[in-house]
Fold this protein.
Amino acid sequence: MQSPLRLQEMIRVIRSARTQGEERGIIQRECADIRAQFRQGDNGERSHSLAKLLYVHMLGYPAHFGQMECVRLIASTRYSEKRIGYLGAMMLLDENQDASLLITNSIKNDLSHNSQYVQSLALCTLACMGSAEMCRDLAPEIERLLRASNSYIKKKATLCAVHIIRKVPELAELFTPSARSLLSEKNHGVLHGAVVLITELCEHNPGTLDQFRKAVPELVQIMKGLVTSSYSPEHNVAGISDPFLQVRILRLLRILGHNNDTASDAMNDLLAQVATNTDSSKTAGSAVLYETVLTIMDINSESGLRVLAVNILGRFLLNNDRNIRYISMTSLQKIVQTDHNAVQRHRGTIVDCLKDQDTSVKRRALELSLALVSAVNIRSMMKELLIFLSTCPPELRSHTTSGIFNAAERYSPSKRWHIDTILHVLTTAGGDVRDETVPNLIQLITTASELHCYTVHKLYRALVKDISQQSLVQVACWCIGEYGDLLLKGECEEIEPVQVTEDDVLDALETVLQSHMSSPATRGFALTATMKLSTRITDNVDRIRSIVSIYGSCIDLELQQRAVEYNALFKKYDHMRAAVLERMPVMDKNSPGHTNGDTSGEIKERHLQCYETYLFQINAVHLNFLLIKESWTKNVSWFPQKYKAEMQKRCVYVHVVLTETVYEKNGLSLKIQCDKQTETEVTVTLIGSNSAQNDITNFTLQAAVPKSVQLQMKAPSGNVIPAHGLGQVTQTVVLNNPNKASLPCLFLCLSVFLTEPVSTIYVQA
């Protein structure tokens, strides 16, 4: 039988394996030998076998069968075996395994061992994998060792105490008295452990803050000693005396000085000294300065000290290390609102970071640049942001466009500048803008009446040049439809005049309609614009009628319905076409159509394609204005006032309060009552009576609800309401709401013959 390999030889053989299969074969043979060695008992080779198994574990192969061997070696009296046993316990055991409980007694015994190295093994193991139960059992032993005279043991005991506090927070009070006394130690390892322990105590128990704030002068003196100390080879790192301890002390001072004037005043001079004297040319110095900046910004520091901290971050922006530039901008982003003027001094350096090759640095620079935009620098900053937009990575374009829009809306010096900026963005990155950009720009254009001529000329030129940017094309089509007459006049003082004919405009819109790049929504804009031009031009109305009729059989149902309705305007309701297609009123920015970034519902785009997009629904008997479709059922008050006035020439619009009289005129009285209401069903009855001299004939009722609600209309009691109140007509409507959605308004359309040939009454319930 081949003798087992020694550890070094096994490592060499495994590394020389040419394939994964060959390596697995070697591991299997060695594991079999290791198991055999474990079964032979105490033969002096157990520690070597366990060491080999730990290497196998490091390679990712199963090594659980060595757990009990760890327990046996920990209980051994030989230091060499105990050392491998503790190492194996830290690697193969964790607090969730029962085997870990078997070493509790061994650890307790070793904590009282007369050898500091054995005590050290026990402390390291407890700090690494001690469970909550082990921590409760051994906490008194750890507290005892905190008061030991040996600095080597104290250092490890403090870190073990930190682990116990994290596992069992209620044991924190046990270590509070000893923690303060550890600050008097001269050993840097003990000091480091003491600062970590105090930090942990303060974070887990804010009640101890007042107690440890009394130690701020001691911490300040320790920190000053580190800053002003001469060269010490034992603690020096790149010219900085023990930067690890300095960073820990600064973090603790940040906790103790937060929202406390006394503690903050005690550390102000120290922080100024550290910020001034620390060399930032090396990574160690940059780490200390960064922690100093965070401490200054988090305590109640003086204003001059805060400016000094911002200047340090500004120097970081010039560092060649991208990581340092990144954390600098991250910190500046957090303080830009409170120290805006101080950060503004570094605006040029921040803007230069937009040209960095690293995308994460670019993102931080973009966020910080947007935060620095103000009314004073809006023009210069916007110029830089627009340059960045033209070259930025695709994943940053959406964020960039949104930031530019928000800044322009907040700080724009004029409406023309605002419009020009948004059009520039749409031209550069129209495919990356958010959905609400189109309605927001339309709202802006409608309010700038003095710029209508300038805007429509500029948008027309952009449309002719490029139709790939859908958002730009939609706005251009809308403006051409609204202000096409201004475009055809060719009289614009603010832009170089260009003579545009009716055919030119229609050719541009037809190009949009026929382009494969146009989305259905964009085609809807173009078709509506074409229809509206029928009242703004004189010679090409027949061409417009032909274009509209073509899309009456379009495969896209949305476009088809729109074309059919527009065709009806040309044929049956041509006398109303001019009134319906006149210019839109100025949009209220707070109207449901203007989202300003807050999108609610999937139909906002339709709202702003034009208010009159769905104004009509053709019926064989009469004209029903489309108040019974989609969003109109949600808030009829949003319907434009100018079209309400036109509607009221033929219609009466009333708001219904349930269980009350909703209409009473010319002898006709309408009442609505709620008969039954549950979570999923509402039953409503409409009652009509007639006190006039003549009977009311052809009385009909129509209703519409959203798709989420099921409508069931019972048969009416009749279609004639007798005169003189001699009878009534009733009809029951049942609304089923299986999804328990919020019930919107119900619109009822009643057609009756009164004194006019047709009278339509819209009732909102």
Remarks:
- The longest strand covers residues 668-677.
- Residues 86 and 484 are 86 Å apart (CA to CA).
